[in-house]
Design goal:
This protein is α/β, with parallel strands linked by helices and 573 residues long. It has helices at 2-11, 15-47, 52-99, 103-106, 112-125, 127-134, 136-152, 156-204, 206-211, 215-267, 276-286, 292-311, 321-324, 378-385, 408-413, 429-434, 442-451, 472-486, 502-515, 551-557, 560-572; strands at residues 338-345, 355-362, 367-371, 393-398, 401-402, 415-418, 427-428, 462-463, 490-494, 520-524, 536-541, 544-549. Helices cover 62% and strands 10% of the residues. The strands form three sheets. It has a six-stranded mixed sheet with strand order 6-9-10-3-11-12, with helices on both faces. Strands 2-1-4-5 form a four-stranded antiparallel sheet, covered by helices on one side. Strands 7-8 form a two-stranded antiparallel ribbon. A hairpin with a 2-residue loop joins strand 11 and strand 12. The longest helix has 53 residues, at 215-267. It is found in: Cell membrane. Its main location: membrane.
């Protein structure tokens, strides 16, 4: 219920609309009771052959209640739905603000299909929290209590029966079905997440499934997942109908009991027969307000699980950047210096350390290459500098500022970053370059494209979603062009030219080193050629620091780096 309380706080922002929803809902409910009660009384009065003028007041009262009910129901629907849509807006904005800092690392813990099911499906499920769970019981209590108070003037016994009916239909029956509903709703949510995941897997992996002749097998799995989801929905539908039917049956039994009790009281001269029809009609009508309680267990469980799944994405994250960041600002005219002291890091849920007691220094304006075999921790080290993760032990400093006191926004704003995987937006080459910074002109972008050997592209050339119409090398060069256009003083490059031929790579690096002449540059590379210009080379293996030095120093030492270099020569020569 803790997660629902978070949704409740966002909902209570719209206090005025919630108040109006309850007030007009009560007016509509009590007006309905008034219509049928007055009609019952008027029927009894008419049976005594009363003159028309004696019924004029009751006729006018019935019409007044009719108008009040219609207007009240319209206003209740208007304000309740406006409150719901506004609540969903607050929920989406609040959730986005919490999940946005987690975006670089959240895909390590959740599959994209499951994320989609939570962010879209679970948020939409919470729209029923206010409409079906929060305010209907309040309206029910208000209408019932007023009706019970009204009937108590004519018969305390009938009032007691209605009160017992309120307890049964409003609380006992819903509570009974709420227990059964938990398992059904849990299964529905799990099946929906699994279906979303399988659909996305099929769409993204269609080409590979087709190549390896596994498409039919995946389609069968998807069909089975869909059938399981439909089966759970059918169970939920049957349960909802059963809940509604039982609630209606109990309501009718209570109304029959009111009729029998009132009839007995009339024969025993304890009740004026003129009020018999009025009490029975009031009983039949007041239980209409108990109808929403039949579906309350389903929506309560639905909302509870949706809130739990939604907020579980953000509630246990170790980084709360928006709470700890200070006003640390870097001087744009000065290259940022980096320092790592005894840094140890392991991915959540992984017992193996990705980095072990790493201590390094990247002086301002220095050029550093980080090399080592695959899985040695090179990319992880860069991700820690970018605050994608929180270190388990040790310290990282940026210009002598602890990294915990530097906001992600300030850090990313001051860095030219090229990762192993870079996103490209649907649009044009110009659109994908313009995100580098404001105020770029076509001539500047065209010159930068030439520096990365992409001069054959026009700025108006299309780029498909995720750059599907670009080769691997073209994607990397376009990402490098964006970094060069950003032109900040810290360069963090992770295998930026792994898909580029050697000649083009040398050409691009010459331009990067020229532009970053006075900047701090950190380059992660599997290739060992062209590292002679680096101020220092860091060698990692299995998350441990093996060697540090210049190219000549490491070659003279004839250690691990020297061995890697000899292996590279034997492979490519």
């Amino acid at each position: 219920m803790r997660d629902l309380s978070s949704a409740l706080k966002l909902m209570l922002i719209e206090k005025k609309d919630i108040f109006y929803s309850i007030i007009f809902g009560f007016c509509a409910g009590i007006a309905a009771v008034g219509i049928f009660s007055a009609s019952g009384y008027m029927i009894s009065k008419s049976a005594l052959e009363s003159p028309v003028y004696a019924l004029a007041v009751m006729i006018a009262l019935v019409k007044l209640f009719g108008f009040a009910r219609a207007l009240g129901r319209y206003a209740e629907r208007y304000f309740s739905h406006r409150a719901t849509f506004t609540m969903l807006s607050h929920l989406r904005v609040s959730f986005y603000e919490k999940i946005e800092p987690l975006a670089p690392r959240i895909f390590q813990n959740y599959r994209s299909g499951d994320l989609l099911a939570r962010i879209v499906g679970d948020v939409e499920s919470l729209q029923h929290f206010f409409l079906r769970v929060y305010y209907p019981p309040i309206v029910l209590l208000l209408v019932f209590l007023c009706t019970i108070l009204f009937t108590s003037f004519y018969s305390p016994y009938v009032a007691i029966v209605l009160f017992l009916g309120l307890l049964i239909t409003g609380f006992v029956v819903p509570a009974f079905f709420a227990v059964k509903q938990k398992k059904i709703d849990k299964n529905i949510r799990e099946k929906r997440a699994l279906l979303s995941t399988d659909v996305i897997e099929l769409m993204y992996g269609f080409r590979d499934l087709k190549i390896y002749q596994k498409l039919e097998e995946m389609e069968q799995q998807l069909t089975k997942t869909s059938d399981d989801y439909i089966c759970e929905q059918e169970k939920d539908g049957i349960q909802a109908i059963y809940n509604h039917s039982l609630n209606t049956m109990v309501s009718l039994i209570i109304s029959w009991f009111v009729l029998l009790l009132s009839s007995y009281m009339v024969t025993a001269d304890q009740l004026d027969g003129l009020f018999l029809a009025m009490l029975v009609m009031a009983s039949l009508t007041v239980f209409e307000n108990a109808t929403p309680m039949a579906v309350l267990p389903s929506h309560l469980e639905n909302s509870r699980h949706a809130a739990a799944r939604l907020f579980s994405l953000v509630q246990d994250e170790p980084i709360k950047d928006q709470e700890i960041e200070t006003t640390v600002q870097f001087d744009h005219q000065k290259a940022i210096a980096l320092r790592m002291n005894n840094v140890t890091f392991a991915f959540p849920g992984d017992s193996r350390n990705a980095l072990n007691h790493i201590s390094l220094s990247f002086p301002s304006g220095s050029k550093t290459a980080i090399v080592g075999p695959s899985g040695s921790g090179k990319s992880t080290l860069l991700q820690l500098i970018l605050k994608f993760h929180t270190i388990n032990q040790g310290e990282i400093f940026l210009d002598d500022h602890p990294i915990d006191l530097v906001s992600q926004e300030e850090l990313w704003k001051r860095a030219n970053v090229v990762l192993q995987e870079n996103h490209f937006f649907f649009g044009t080459i110009r659109d994908n370059l313009m995100i580098a910074k404001e105020g770029l002109i076509d001539d500047e972008m065209e010159k930068t494209l030439a520096k990365v050997k992409l001069e054959h592209f026009s700025l108006s050339d299309p780029v498909f979603e995720k750059g599907e119409n670009l080769s691997g090398g073209e994607k990397q060069r376009l990402a490098i062009a964006r970094a060069m256009l950003k032109d900040e003083r810290l360069w963090l490059l992770d295998e930026p030219t792994s898909s580029v031929d050697a000649l083009t790579e040398r050409y691009i690096y010459n331009h990067i080193l020229l532009q970053a002449k006075n900047d701090t540059l950190v380059l992660i590379s599997h290739r060992l050629t062209g590292l002679e210009k680096m101020d220092q080379i860091i060698v990692l293996e299995n998350g441990k620091l093996i060697e540090v030095g210049t190219f000549d120093e490491l070659m003279e030492k004839k250690g691990y780096f020297y061995q890697l270099k000899q292996i590279e020569k034997s492979v490519f020569m």
